[in-house]
């Protein structure tokens, strides 16, 4: 019976670190393409994302693509701005 108790204690000790890893906050990414009404890409547009940690912004590349990484889980508001 004593060996069985040590086996159970060992299994629990090995499981605790995995439970802690499972509790890490998850993040995601938001990516897309910004275009005009005719479907033409808009390079240099500013994409602003407002969420749980405040506001983050990024400019679109030469093809109108953008990607904002490491966003925590939550609700977001997206705004796109471009001069002209």
Could you explain the architecture of this structure?
The protein is 25% helix and 38% strand. It is built from 1 helix and 5 strands; from the N terminus they run H-E-E-E-E-E. The strands form 2 sheets. Strands 3-2-5 form a 3-stranded antiparallel β-sheet, with no helix packed on it. A two-stranded antiparallel sheet has the order 1-4. The longest helix is centred in the first third of the chain and has 21 residues, at 2-22. The radius of gyration is 23 Å and the shape is elongated. It starts with a helix and ends with a strand. The relative contact order is 0.22.
User: Can you list the strand order of the major beta sheet?
Assistant: 3-2-5
> What is the mean pLDDT?
82
Radius of gyration: 23 Å
The helix-and-strand class reads alpha+beta
Question: How far apart are the termini?
Answer: 79 Å
User: Largest beta sheet, briefly?
Assistant: 3 strands, antiparallel
Strand content: 35-45%
Give the ordered list of helices and strands: HEEEEE
Secondary structure tally, helices: 1
Number of strands: 5
Task: Name the helicity range.
Answer: 25-40%
Low-confidence stretches: none
Broad shape: elongated
């Amino acid at each position: 019976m004593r060996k069985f108790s040590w086996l159970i204690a060992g299994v629990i000790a090995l499981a605790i670190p995995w439970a802690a890893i499972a509790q890490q906050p998850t993040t995601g990414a938001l990516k897309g393409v910004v275009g005009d009404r005719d479907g033409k890409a808009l390079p240099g547009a500013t994409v602003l994302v407002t969420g749980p940690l405040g506001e983050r912004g990024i400019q679109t590349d030469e093809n109108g693509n953008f990607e904002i990484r490491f966003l925590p889980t939550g609700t977001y508001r997206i705004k796109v701005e471009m001069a002209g």
